[in-house]
Amino acid sequence: MYPGKTKTDPRLRAVLLVSVAVAASLALGGCRVPQKMADQPQYDPLEKSAFFPDGASSRPLVEGTVPSPRVEGTLAQVGGGPDELFDSGREAGQFSDKYPMPLTPELMARGRDRFDIYCSMCHGRVGDGDGMIVARGYKKPPSFHSDLLRSRKNGYIFDVISNGFGVMPAYRTMIPVADRWAIVAYVRALQVSQNATISDVPSADRSSLDAPAAAPRAEGEKH
């Protein structure tokens, strides 16, 4: 031991070494190793280029490129066009009450199938808003049978399915466009079914409604 110097506690020395090591690692962690692919020169939008003969850095679209608003299931086309009704539920920018395809039994069956899968847990099987999520404490959605929703146009219902509304999420990435229209048709059928009279039933089918109900089974009787 030299004169005038004190002996350093080994434990203190160990603490100092650890502190220096941590500080060094933090300092080095802030340093980024250059990456040639990530750090290569890039053009800014609309910047001039000396590389291309036309002097423009933005290159023309490859032949056959489809704008994203026209890809099924993405943002709807607006401002008119041959597929505006099918893609957005609008005509000339306004919600339409038309269907972009014929109403067929197959379309209705598809709509019921998709509705039961994607919609019934919230809206209920008949569209009254009493789905299973309500029993679990979630907010009750509005009934399809209210005067307000019965008065809404088909395009509005399609738009809500596509883009969501309030707490309802957008389903455009999960449900294809044609299936959304099938659901719209089925929602309309539900609205009719819950507000129908006997005169709305085709005469050929009324006899089945007039048939007597099956007698209830006695207690203990086997099914």
Topology:
Elements: H1 10-29, H2 84-88, E1 90-91, E2 94-95, H3 105-118, H4 120-123, H5 132-135, H6 147-151, H7 154-163, H8 177-193, H9 203-210
Antiparallel strand pairs: 1-2
Helix pairs in contact: 3-8, 7-8
Structural overview:
This protein is mainly alpha-helical and 223 residues long. The chain has a domain at 97-196: Orthogonal Bundle (Cytochrome Bc1 Complex, Chain D, domain 2). The chain contains nine helices and two strands; from the N terminus they run ααββααααααα. A two-stranded antiparallel ribbon has the order 1-2. A hairpin with a 2-residue loop joins strand 1 and strand 2 (94-95). Helix 3 (105-118) crosses helix 8. It is flat. The termini are far apart.
Could you give a quick summary of the protein structure above?
This protein has 223 residues and is mainly alpha-helical. It has helices spanning 10-29, 84-88, 105-118, 120-123, 132-135, 147-151, 154-163, 177-193, 203-210, and strands at residues 90-91, 94-95.
**What's the rounded overall pLDDT mean?**
81
Number of strands: 2
Shape: flat
User: What share of residues is helical?
Assistant: 25-40%
Largest sheet: 2 strands, antiparallel
Strand order within the widest sheet? 1-2
Give me the CATH architecture of the domain at 97-196, please. Orthogonal Bundle
Order of helices and strands: HHEEHHHHHHH
